[in-house]
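Sample log: O-methyltransferase.
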Amino acid sequence: MSWQRRLPFLRWSFWRMAMGVRNIPRTGQVGDGREDAAADYVVAHARAGDPEDVLATIDRFAYTKSFLINIGEEKGALLDAAVRRADPALALELGTYVGYGALRIACAAPRARVYSVELSADNAAAARRIWAHAGVADRVTCVVGTLGDGGHTLDALAALPEFGPGALDLLFIDHAKDAYLPDLQSILERGWLHPGAIVVADNVKIPGAPEYRAYMTEQQGRRWRTVEHPTHAEYQNVLRDLVLESEFLG
């Protein structure tokens, strides 16, 4: 896989993804069926009931079949470390895609109940297939919707018995970049985060979430304590990215 890391631009699936990127904010998918193909590949090639092998199989698909826009293994290791520090009983992900991030959280936090919010019902179906094959479907749940839909999805989460004041230990943000800050603010307004809760944000440099980064910089030492992790964008080692890990101070 070494050349795929160094030279992603030689891969047709990378350019097909780049051409289809305009579809993602509207549909949640690139538009060529790669998300369903990833789920098919996992079911065909990964060991059932082995979440670590499922993650490795998704990575292999992203390198050798079709480029994927989940966090990937390099940045995923940063997420894993943050999850272990948070030791969550309840975790929330914004942006399910094919279920990779939520599966990493479930692996790093075996006692956690994980909820993931996803725009696309088709992506949700692919993720559920992958979680079922990995054997974690009993504690990982996808909620189809967006936090910016006028409160419907927030109300659906609030109706769940796990959610309540200070109940959320970990938030992973990896969806529409312009929604990072308003969605975080919506969660703060609900009071779900407690002092010491951890928020991880992917793709802060590429494609970029400048308003979110500026907010965390301005709030450093006040409401948040943030560490910026320099890394690479998913499934290559050419383009630089940032993952922000922020501890809520209250």
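Observation: The chain has twelve helices and seven strands.
Observation: The first strand starts at residue 90 and ends at 94.
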